[in-house]
Task: structure prediction
Amino acid sequence: MTFYMSAIILTELMMIAMTLHVLHYSGFTREQKAWYVLTFAAVMLCSAAEFAVHCGRYDVKFAIPLTILTVLQFSTAPLLGVLFSGALGLPGQKKIAIWFFVANFVAETVAAPFGWVFSFGADGYSRGKLFLIYEAFYFVSLVYLIVSMVRVGRKFRNRDTRTIAMILVILVAGIVPMTVFKLNITYIAIAIGASLCYIYYNDLVQQDIQAALVANQAALSRMQSHIITGLASLIENRDVETGEHVLRTGVFVEMLTRDAIRDGVYGEQLNEQFVSKMTTLAPMHDIGKIVVSDRILRKPGRLTPEEFEQMKMHAAVGGDVIREVLEGVTNDDYLSFASDIATYHHERWDGKGYPKGLKGEQIPLAARIMAIADVFDALVSQRCYKEPFSFDESVKIIEEGAGTQFDPNLVGVFLRHRSEFR
Result:
């Protein structure tokens, strides 16, 4: 008996703790909080009634108050399944809860004077011949709860049937001893089940929020990619290109970066995140050409020194254009990465490039990768001012540029994997 009473007290304390947590939790609406508070309060009421009836200090003069308290308990306990369902977010539970409580209350009130369900005599509490009425209501409530949990699970991307099964086992483990062996541990099981229901629903909500965030992030990334590719293609089309240069260089930078990772070149500087940014942002490398006139971009022959100086402006302003276009569309890390590619992809390893004459590893790694991909594609492609070079001729030009125009480490990677670029 002492153990049982201790368990009842612990049940009350657990429900108080859960109630305080719900009231301070910001992840639920006011209506959901109300359902949870009602659920935990109902468990506390029923547990307190159990304590009053079975505490071992029964006096026959308290038979009437205890009868009233037990009628309230037996009317509330089967209601728990509906309260759980409301707490789990199912609509329309208020009316069902009212009707279910009224049906239980009427049945218990009518039966109480006759002792059909229970009675209090000289020896205390005893079950009536029709205690099955209470058990039937309880069984209906249990089935209703399980159906509700399955229905709620269908609303979410991530469903956990094991938790539903666990709650079912716990509730059955509390009800069977009460029904068969008259061991009143039902409310302990219900308290545990209520806590698990709360955790179950909260976990579903959080998983669904996380899944939605991931989906939104993926959609945002796709939008960014479309914006970047679309803008880059517009610039390339001004340069009498079909836009395929944008796509090809995107493929080339991804291949070169992955090959460098496999070869262990530049170690931790290169990883999957770098590959992703490189592939996504490489199409923006010539966006600065928006400031170059069509006369120069479309000129079929070699540029004069003056025209070439104007052409070089596209690298000088490329980063600024990117920041103006993508500000607010992507984060600062992407902006800096894209700006580096656009501004410095014409720098040379020997410091003779433009726009700032950076030398060696002063040039951002992304821009050094872009430089090889950009020049290689220009070599193997037909342009308005030249015919395409053969693959072997193009590879040889890249090789000859190692240590002068291009990063020799990256050229080594390119040469070791040249067959991929054919």
About this structure: The mean pLDDT is 79. The longest helix spans residues 186-238.
